[in-house]
Amino acid sequence: MKDTKEVAALVAKAKSRLAEDMQQREIGAIIWNIAETGFHYIPEIVIDDPRDGKERTVRVTGLYLYAGELYAMEEGAEGFNVRHYYTPGVDVPPSVVTLTPSVAEETFGKPAETHGYTREGTPEEWLVVADCYFEALNEK
């Protein structure tokens, strides 16, 4: 088993590469509908719940890049749903939505101040999230 520092370095490197890709594509946030995208894997991360300190598994429904830091967006948290980004009866419901950095910051603000964001996760969990990110880009 790798030591904690080595694992943390691997997670940081993976997130850094995702953040760089998002910056190059001028994506501040990407949100996907897990049920509609047909991902090969379900993006899930085990977190320590701040409310009770117990571990729980959350599905990741997107990524938010804020001030150079990458955050996974928890499924079910308010505002993290593609439903908020189209007009029912007028537009076709999207399976993936991307927001520019300025729109993402205006929409979501500081992630540390609100519920539904996490930076936790193992390298394996972030590898699945990264895979889903690239699959989501192909859905657009």
Name a few traits of the molecule.
single chain, alpha+beta, six-stranded antiparallel sheet
Description:
With 140 residues, the chain is α+β, with helices and mostly antiparallel strands. The protein has four helices and six strands, in the order H-E-H-E-E-E-E-H-E-H. Strands 1, 2, 3, 4, 5 and 6 form a six-stranded antiparallel beta sheet that branches. Helix 1 packs parallel to helix 4. The longest helix is centred in the first third of the chain and has 21 residues. The relative contact order is 0.25.
Please describe the topology of this protein:
Layout: H1 4-24, E1 29-32, H2 34-37, E2 44-48, E3 55-66, E4 69-74, E5 96-99, H3 101-108, E6 117-118, H4 123-139
Antiparallel strand pairs: 1-3, 1-5, 2-3, 3-4, 4-6
Helix pairs in contact: 1-4
Summary, kept brief:
It contains 4 helices and 6 strands; from the N terminus they run αβαββββαβα.
Strand content: 15-25%
The assigned structural class equals alpha+beta
CA gyration radius, whole angstroms: 15 Å
Kindly report how far apart the N and C termini lie.
38 Å
Strand count:
6
Q: How many H/I helical runs? A: 4
Helix content: 25-40%
Average predicted local confidence, pLDDT: 89
**Main sheet: strands, sense, barrel:** 6 strands, antiparallel
Q: Which residue ranges are poorly predicted, with pLDDT under 50 across at least 5 consecutive positions?
A: none
The run of helices and strands is: HEHEEEEHEH
What general outline do the C-alpha atoms trace?
A: globular
